[in-house]
Amino acid sequence: MNRSENVIDVHGLQKRFDGKTVVDGLSLQVAEGEIHGFLGPNGSGKTTSIRMLCGLLTPDGGAGRCLGHDVLRESAAIKREVGYMTQRFSLWDDLSIEENLHFVGRMFGVVGRRQRVDRALEGLGLGGRRRQLAGTLSGGWKQRLALASCLLHEPRLLLLDEPTAGVDPKARRDFWEEIHRLSAAGITVLVSTHYMDEAERCHRLSYLAYGRLLATGRGAEIVAAQGLSTWAVSGDGVERLSEALRQLPAVEQVASFGTQLHVSGRDATRLQAELAHFAAAHGLRMDAARPSLEDVFMHLMQGARDPLER
Amino acid sequence: MTRFSLSRWLGILIKEFIQLRRDRLTFGMIVGIPILQLVLFGFAINSDPKHLPTAVVMAEPGPAARAFVAAMQNSGYFDVLGRVSEDQAARALARGEVQFVVSFPPDFQRDLVRGRPVAIAVEADATDPQATGGAVAVLNHLGAELFAPDLPGRRLAAIAPVELRVLRRYNPEGITAYNIVPGLLGVILTLTMVLMTGLAMTRERERGTFENLMATPATPFEVITGKLVPYVLIGLVQVTLVLIAARWIFHVPMLGSIALLYGVVLIFIVANLVLGITFSSIARNQLQAMQMTFFFFLPSMLLSGFMFPFRGMPEWAQAVGSLLPLTHFLVLVRGILLKASGTALLWPSIWPILLFTGVVLAVGLRTFRRTLD
What we know:
The complex is a heterodimer.
Chain A: E1 8-17, E2 20-30, E3 35-39, H1 46-53, E4 61-66, E5 69-70, H2 75-81, E6 82-85, H3 97-107, H4 113-124, H5 139-151, E7 157-161, H6 169-184, E8 188-192, H7 196-199, E9 204-209, E10 212-217, H8 219-225, E11 229-234, H9 242-246, E12 253-257, E13 260-265, H10 268-282, E14 285-289, H11 293-303
Parallel strand pairs in A: 3-8, 3-9, 6-7, 7-8
Antiparallel strand pairs in A: 1-2, 1-4, 4-5, 9-10, 11-13, 11-14, 12-13
Helix pairs in contact in A: 3-4, 3-5
Chain B: H1 6-22, H2 24-44, E1 52-57, H3 63-75, E2 78-83, H4 86-95, E3 100-103, H5 108-113, E4 118-125, H6 129-146, E5 162-169, H7 176-207, H8 209-215, H9 220-248, H10 258-282, H11 286-303, H12 315-323, H13 325-339, H14 343-370
Parallel strand pairs in B: 1-2, 1-3, 4-5
Antiparallel strand pairs in B: 3-4
């Protein structure tokens, strides 16, 4: 594979379960060394997409390559070169830390397994606790162990499915430092998350809803592309006025941020005029705000229709 | 203390019913088990078995011999399959294809007419004493009635006494332990092997580790067989324990080759393990795997000839029983231990187990592949 080629390059991937389309026409290009964020509400098809990319599921439609291997036919080759971290901790609770790493190493036929496991334990700082059962670790440690086990066979692509769910902020920060270190070393990372601060740490983002890819690109590009203007409205009793604000014709979205409301809409001039009128009437302050990723994603999701609800 | 609330209580009741209705397997068991038990105990199981397959060895079929065979058939206890040679009869008895061999001496008719003492030899396969007991009693009664010297109006009678020599082969004293203990070998293996492997895979699925396993390059064949081997060893340990107890506590005779016994044990263990793995790739959790195991275990116990004589069951029940590996395993174990049967003689009971294993393995591999898709 030459360097200019994308590590992930798929078109129109489709997956149905019992006649229900879970992923509908996913096209995704991820370059080598990129950290690509995968965002979207629960049930939007993130996990299914990741499973198709790592060879666990065979797509029902579409085509493409992952690490240069055909996603439809060469799942075995993909599995060997990908590190996949499942959403739920999926190492063996009743094996020790060391035994888990050795097992995974054996499964991938890692050469020089002993040294690699020792190095991984050292890197984790778990050398002294290597005989402790994995099930007795705390959430943050489990996550670090899971990542270490994914890296044991030196994959070129990491697929991380909500790796930081239920992990404390300090551990999350350390985790992302590690991801950036790996990226700098040339490893490509596709990571799904619900956290906006994590989304901002990614090089590029994709936003999924109802199985469809709604936006892809750099964070700033996605924000700009939606052409949303946002105002921060604050003042006494502003929380109780959110329903009334929603009724204004130019307002497309109202979201609470602490004591402020973020009011957004695409028609900037009308929005400003209506808001100015409303703020004056209720004695509120309004400040121009930069629409955040979250504002944009909320907006995207509202625009997308759930095909099941009609 | 909170007072009892009817609506709360009803709420719980309704929830339980809804969950029960959704849990198809449990629901099936609730209905299925009583029906199965009823059918098995009501129709299939018969502790006074009749229609036992019987081979007849007779050189020249005279009227007296024919009358005796007809009387046997009419008693309802014997199904006379026809005349065979001595060799054929011996083989059929060893294989368990017939329960009885009735042999008339070459000059039976002549000797009888001339008033010489004659004897009919009846060989019974007594490995399962329960199966032959009733029939042997009837046989004695038949002989006495048909050839009674003092009954008036009988041409055959009044000439000579006819002796009925009943030979209980393989278990002359009719010791039930000789039958039960080898049988237990199969029952214990069926339960533990199917259950343990059934749980092994569903445990992975329940804990979410299955996905991790599938994300590695390991193939379904590697995963399945890799999981089986430890249980093969456990099974062999169990067999050894039962055999030690059989030898030194129950004094069960061990006439055949122990190596051959371990060979068929291995085949049987693999059959059960493959079934367990298949159950676990169908079941969604450990409880379901357990339920499926018991659903299989019940007919295995009752229809295999372990608890009740196989020959005593109606045809359809025997047909169902013939699908179960335990049925054939019982023939094999009893054959090796009590009859000293060899491989050639046992082959008719070996291939059905192999076939079972092959079919179940094919189903298991297919469902295993589909598990995530």
